[in-house]
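Inputs:
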Amino acid sequence: KWSVIMPTLIRSVGTNIPRVSKFRGISDGVILGADTRATDDMVVADKNCRKIHHIAPRIYCCGAGVAADAEIATQMMASNVELHTLNTGRPPLVAMVTRQLKQMLFRYQGHMGSSVIVGGVDVTGAHLYSVYPHGSYDKLPFLTMGSGAAAAVSVFEDRFKANMELDEAKRLVRDAITAGIFCDLGSGSNVDLCVITAAGAEYLRGYDRPAGKGKREGQYRYKPGTTPVLTKTQTPLSLDVVYETVQMMDTE
Amino acid sequence: IVPVAGLCPQGSYGIQDSLRSGFTSVKNELLPSHPLELSEKNFVLNQDKMNFSTLRNIQGLHAPLKLQMEYRAARQIQRLPFLQSSNLALDTLRGSDDTIGFEDILSDPAQSETMGEPHMMVEYKLGLL
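Outputs:
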């Protein structure tokens, strides 16, 4: 079965990373998608940021919410997963990443404002989880998070099918993120995809660039002489010297 | 926010040690300045309390007793007060030697800009001060 996750954009105080990510689960993998806009309230802080973070060779994470919180949370997950792998000698499970993430987020009672979609392939198969800032999580065939979640999930609700082909799945994820890019102010710029299968993960940065800068069709400058001069009057101002002082500069 | 009174003063004889920890301020000690302040300050203690009481219920009193005895022994393996101790035995007992948390990333004592005055700290530890 294909599962889809879509991290979406979330606006929050400070620099936040709205993310639109879509994730689709496929019968033997997952597809994570995200947009690339980071906003600071109403200003775009970064128009090409990375929202899909690497946790393990076959586990990736899309982070939405406050950018710094998502970044540090995913980095700590990556470190802990690496230590755990070295300790146990086994490749990590997606459930393990989700559990550590939710325990950490619950400990900080939502003050750590990062909503995260964790997806990957492990020995038990392909999985997709979403973790909210307060520590709750969902495990579903497709998920979206962030400010563009509503726009993206609507595309999923319409066209998602179980057992899709890889190309069809990538197109669906791309379309869902594009819906977020166009219909949500917190999402924009390019579409990043990450296709994870048992063979490995393929990070397609800049998979699609739907919101490019348009080309100017014409010249908008006025030619000199466009505005006709009707009358011209000159009034000389006669000024008299009233007061004159000389001040020596200190040149030493 | 629930005010918490009666936080133990750090000095000896149960009174505020103005020389080392500054003046007391009732407001600072009454209300926490962040919703998570108390929760984080006591996080390890609360976790240990919960784990030990579960362990006691499952295995009997001897299990937490033995473990706490080991913790106390391991906690005493320290360098001189102004030097940074690795706490390797303590970390191994706790299981925190294979996890990374914020305490490992932030406020690294090896990179702190200030250092305690060695003689004073040793004298304080020996009780000569």
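Remarks. Confidence is low (pLDDT under 50) at residues 1-23 of chain A. Chain A touches chain B at residues 76, 79-80, 83-84, 86-87, 107-109, 111 (CB under 8 Å).
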